[in-house]
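Pilot study result, target chain (214 residues):
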Amino acid sequence: MNYSFRKKNKIVKYIIIHYTGMKNLKLAYQKLSNRNSKVSVHYLISRKGIIFNLLCPKFKAWHAGKSRWRNDENINEFSIGIELENKGHEFGYSNFTSKQYISLTNLIFFLKNNFYIKDKDILYHSDISPHRKRDPGEKFYLNKIGITRPRYNNKYKKNYNINEMLCLYGFNKMYVKNYKRYCIKSVKRALNYKKISSSISKKFMNDLYNLLFH
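Predicted structure:
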C-alpha cells in the first residue's frame, strides 16, 4: 500500500470523491493496494455497497495527484479519498448504485463528525484537477448523499462574469486562467448535464449562478 505521513502543519479538511475507472472491482482493488501502482486511497466502495478501508485517514493516500482547490495545492496533504466502483468513461460509464449511495452517505457522515469536515469541502476529483480528471462524473448525484454545497448570500453584485463565478465555485485562479474550458466541463458534470462541452450558454450562466447564490 502506498502512503506518506502528513506534514505536521496540514490538517484533513477535504473529502475527494472518485470513481475507479477500471473494468471490475478486483482490478481496482489490486491497483489500489499495489505498492508499484503509485496510487492509493483511503476507502473503496463496491457496487454492492461494501466499504473497504484500505488506509487509515491519519496517513496521506496518493489519490489526488497534481491538484489545487482555492488557495491549497497538493490536495493529498489535506484530504481523504473515496473511490466508487465504476468502469468510468473509458470502459462503460454507468449509474452508481443505490447501495453505493447508502454506504457513501454513512461513511461521509462518520468522516464529517470525526474530522470536522464541512459540506462545502466535499469535492469531486474533477474539481481539484479539472484538466486531468472527469470523475466521479455527470452520473454522480451529490444530493443523493444529503449534501448540498453551501451557497453565497448575494446581496450586492448581480452581474458576475464567468471567471469570477468559476473562482467563487472554488477553482484555483491558475486553473481558471489556464484551463477555463476544463473548469466549465467540470461544473457541467457537477450540474449533471447530459452533454459535456466547454460552451458557455445563457442557460449555463444561469445554472452556475443559481448553484452559487441564494
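One observation from the pilot: Residues 162-212 form one domain. A full batch analysis is planned for the follow-on phase.
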